[in-house]
């Protein structure tokens, strides 16, 4: 059974999908996740359109946010970045986006690749207890199979349901890329610059709409990946969620930020 994959798109698509499918196929949430301790992820950003959460993002510098390129489908002037949030809707620091830089080799769905974008804030944020950049990986190698990681996001927590109000997190491990790429799994769609993730229990998954663009952290204090795509049925163990590895892109990121 090789159904086409579905990128983790926007909440709107999730809602439409749930309506079309009678709410059955877009089971899109961090199932089995837990509420994060308030402000334990001070680098976490909510990308919003008209006050609605679209995607996650990661503050990687006082003036730059790293997210998934496929999240940037709306005109920039309609988008805002909200920093320093734990519960969606709480007052946070809302910033306009001064500049959007998609990765020059970004390929949209159905064969998503290089799914990264950098968003420049309209000013430099002052680091605080609730707002603090997360460091880039030091090496150039993507995280190795078996590494213990965690993902975080505000995506919906029940199929056809609403966005989570409080930030959720879930522990995951990195799958072997060759296995993830084989014909039973993603069948050739996994590039060497992607990370496939698996939950520890088969009833858990971060495939929720609204989680795209959010961080995968494996070693403390560093962003290892940015959530990119999953499958319609998120607990399908043969279609594990996939993130873009950040390490292979650090020179591009530093070049953009340095300009
Ligand atoms: C997955 O398979 C495709 C197609 O054969 C290949 O281009 C790609 O490099 C493979 N990815 C990995 C991680 O080996």
From TrEMBL:
Keywords: Disulfide bond, Hydrolase, Protease, Secreted, Serine protease, Signal, Zymogen. Pfam families: Trypsin. InterPro entries: Peptidase_S1_PA (IPR009003), Peptidase_S1_PA_chymotrypsin (IPR043504), Peptidase_S1A (IPR001314), Trypsin_dom (IPR001254), TRYPSIN_HIS (IPR018114). Residues 1-25 form the signal peptide. Cleaves peptide substrates after methionine, leucine, and norleucine. Physiological substrates include EZR, alpha-tubulins and the apoptosis inhibitor BIRC5/Survivin. Promotes caspase activation and subsequent apoptosis of target cells. Gene3D superfamilies: Trypsin-like serine proteases. GO terms for cellular component: extracellular region. GO terms for biological process: proteolysis. CDD domains: Tryp_SPc. Residues 30-258 form the Peptidase S1 domain. Its main location: secreted. One of its GO terms (molecular function) is serine-type endopeptidase activity. This is Granzyme M. It is found in: Secreted. Coiled coil: none annotated.
């Amino acid at each position: 059974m090789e159904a086409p994959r579905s990128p983790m798109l926007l909440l709107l698509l999730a809602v439409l999908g749930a309506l079309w499918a009678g709410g059955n196929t877009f089971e899109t949430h961090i199932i089995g996740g837990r509420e994060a301790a308030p402000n334990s992820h001070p680098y976490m950003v909510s990308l919003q359109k008209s006050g609605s959460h679209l995607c996650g993002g990661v503050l990687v510098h006082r003036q730059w946010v790293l997210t998934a390129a496929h999240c940037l489908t709306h005109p920039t002037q309609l988008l805002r970045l909200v920093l320093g949030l734990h519960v969606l809707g709480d007052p946070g620091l809302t910033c306009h986006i001064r500049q959007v830089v998609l990765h020059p080799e970004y390929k949209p769905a159905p064969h998503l690749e290089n799914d990264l974008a950098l968003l420049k804030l309209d000013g430099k944020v002052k680091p605080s207890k609730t707002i603090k950049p997360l460091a880039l990986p030091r090496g150039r190698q993507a995280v190795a199979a078996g590494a213990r990681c965690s993902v975080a996001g505000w995506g919906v927590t029940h199929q056809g349901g609403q966005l989570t109000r409080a930030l959720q997190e879930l522990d995951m491990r990195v799958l072997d890329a060759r296995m993830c790429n084989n014909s039973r799994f993603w069948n050739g769609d996994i590039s060497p610059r992607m990370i496939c993730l698996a939950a520890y229990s088969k009833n858990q998954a971060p495939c929720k709409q609204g989680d795209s663009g959010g961080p995968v952290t494996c070693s403390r204090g560093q962003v290892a990946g940015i959530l990119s795509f999953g499958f319609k049925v998120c607990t399908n163990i043969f279609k594990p969620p996939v993130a873009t590895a950040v390490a292979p892109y650090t020179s591009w990121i530093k070049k953009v930020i340095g300009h």
